[in-house]
Amino acid sequence: MAVFSFPKTSRLLNAADYKAVFGNAQLKVSCRHFLVLANRNTRSSARLGLVIPKKNVALAVQRNRIKRQLRNTFRHNKELLNKLDVVVLARKGADKLNNKELIDTIDSLWQDLHTKMIRAAAKNQDDR
RNA sequence: CGAGUCAGCCGGGCAAUUGCUGUCUUUAGCUCUUCGUUUGUCGACUAUCGAUUUACGAGGAAAUCGACAGAGGAAAGUCCGGGCUCCAUAGAGCAGAGUGCCAGGUAACGCCUGGGGGGUGUAAACCCACGGCUAGUGCAGCAGAAAGUAAACCGCCUCAAAGCUUUAGGGUUGAGAGGUAAGGGUGAAAGGGUGCGGUAAGAGCGCACCGCGCGACUGGUAACAGUUCGUGGCAAGGUAAACCCCACUCGGAGCAAGGCCAAAUAGGAAUCCACAGAUGCUGCUCGCAUUGGGUUCGGGUAGGCCGCUAAAGACCUGUGGCGACACAGGUCGUAGAUGAAUAAUUGUCCUCGACAGAACCCGGCUUAUAGGCUGACUCGCUUU
Fold it and tell me: Which CATH class is domain A8-127?
């Protein structure tokens, strides 16, 4: 399997999956335009879910663009986020960013999430 | 050449790399699974059955290889109309809603075509909620004397008390009474227009012409039109996206429709009302269907498949029709997602790319839209 692919096993597929992340978010990263929630899963790979509310991004074209960019960067950074279920929420004004700015901000979010995950794992080991 | 009108069309191109969805296809082995045959073991007990297991064959899922296809002219607003599905076979009456010049087209329409009438523009063309206020009821700010069975502010005219003046006749001012819708003024609008006659002054009071109403005739399927005839002096103000009247149309809910499969929970508990009611079919009445129903508590629920894309389909040709369109023949085979694909990055070219993303499917309307192309027509200028 190609390294950067994005099959259905890499996505959150139903309401239960989303509920699990929202109800018990272990990791949180945010910036002006996005909020990222994440949770450890028991699978071999990371999974992504997207929440782009119509209220925050009015035009369907813009919502599609943001989703595509998010998926794109996700599949390029999958190795960083291994064994996490991730939900990305768009905030108001996210549609104002162009593609390049979008990629930059999301990439830095993935990095933050990665370091947080490592720190949390280390802490867990300390606790034990 | 410039300005403009209408109709139709296009809506960045190419390459590389990395991805997504669907259909078809490849696959030695691996993973899961169904069915059939088969090997061994165990149990019940010997007609066999059940559990487990070995191998083979066939199929499916997933994965994999490759090929092909993959947003719009508005996909949008959800404003109309239909198909489709369920509710009764889609029914009756009232209420309600919609449409509103005529004819045609269409599955249907509030759409389209052609025609009539009115308006705008030099014109090509464009615009019109364009049935009825002589069925009824209602409404109308300011100004103005008066605004709907008209009306007398100024003016004009007649009569005229009284005053002044004059020898007298008379002259002059003129309270008041009346006539008058021609003139002034107000207003969006003052109850036909112009002219002549007429009159105290005026007035459709009379006449001519124009306009208008009604009837006939002619033309037209009709709306309607008419250098036609007759008749009426003329009474008809505006508003029906005011009630209303008239004509025609409309049953309801929507793909989370609806159907199938699988799993799970439950065939619950409490309480209230009950053989006539309750529920569903728009509001009401009838009618029809179902058989207990409502509330609270408890439990469960957007898993999969079908519906789902071949369609009132597109293009070409012919025939009929002014046209919308219809009929016949031929060719093509065109997204189908579902936490929701149709893209990203880089390079390059140019005219430097607007508005914007399918969600059951069509026909329209409306709104948004960078830039570009084609055709027909109109007006102006120049040249010949």
Answer: alpha beta
